[in-house]
Amino acid sequence: MVDQQIAEPSDDRRIITNARVLDAMRTVPRHQFVPEEMRPHAYRDRPLPIGHRQTISQPYIVALMSELLAVEPGHRVLEIGTGSGYQAAVLAELTDEVYSIELLAPLAEQARRSLRAEGYDSIQLRTGDGFRGWPEAAPFDSIILTCAIDEIPPPLWTQLKIGGRLVMPLGPQEGMQRLIVATKKDNGSRETETIIGVRFVPLVSDAAAPQ
Ligand code: SAH
How confident is the model at residue 211 (pLDDT cuts 50, 70, 90)? Predict the structure, then answer.
């Protein structure tokens, strides 16, 4: 999977070069994070359903977002949308301090089981609305959202360190979104770069402005 889809793809616009990310992608067993009936497809180049109308992202997108986060050992990372737990496991290969929040309790429980079974005991998991972030654990070196919304949730921006990076699908709930990297500059201002068009499930929150 990693060689053909991520490290040496036929389409070299989508190559991932960060060696730590490639190692992490080689290490985490994706099949352990998908439902039983999806296991035969676990290493294909596509997103997969994980129940409750949610999906585990395509491996390339997981690798790309992990690379864009620029995680270094010792960094504290927050993920919004634990889903299957797969992205959290990849992040845990990059640093010891991973926090992840999932809105839907059954998915959060399943992710907890999968992560425990694979030995990812250091990941901090919470069930609830990630729009509000995890203030007690802030500030974070980087923040990743794996669900889409048309604004950067203000609490998440507050919880990002100066110099930190936030990676997310920005845009409407239906249709195309943009994968962006927003960097918090010295004076707290925002520098935003658009990477590619993407399609993620929506972030669901009472705290968000109506879309
Ligand atoms: N990172 C996941 C992909 C999950 S899909 C993986 O590796 O498998 C996005 C997830 O975001 C879904 O599980 C959805 O339930 C969750 N989600 C949606 N709104 C949320 C919110 N406000 N807070 C936390 N999680 C949310």
Answer: low
Segment 52-86, tens digit of pLDDT:
999 999 999 999 999 999 999 999 999 999 999 99
Instruction: Using the atom order of ligand 1, give the atom closest to the CA of residue 62.
Output: 7
The reply to whether ligand 1 has any atom less than 6 angstroms from the CB of 204 is yes
Task: Specify the pLDDT at position 14.
Answer: 83
Going along the chain from its start, the domains and CATH numbers come out as 2-198 (3.40.50.150)
Model-level pTM greater than 0.90? yes
Q: How far is the CA of 164 from the centre of ligand 1 (A)?
A: 22
Q: Which ligand 1 atom is at minimum distance from the Cα of 87?
A: 7
Three-state SS letters, the chain: CHHHHHHCCCCHHHCCCCHHHHHHHHHCCHHHHCCHHHHHHCCCCCCEEEECCEEECCHHHHHHHHHHHCCCCCCEEEEECCCCCHHHHHHHCCCCEEEEEECCHHHHHHHHHHHHHCCCCCCEEEECCHHHCCHHHCCEEEEEECCEECCCCHHHHHCEEEEEEEEEEECCCCCCEEEEEEEECCCCCEEEEEEEEECCCECCCCCCCCC
pLDDT in the model for residue 10: 87
Give residue 186 CA to ligand 1 midpoint distance, Å: 30
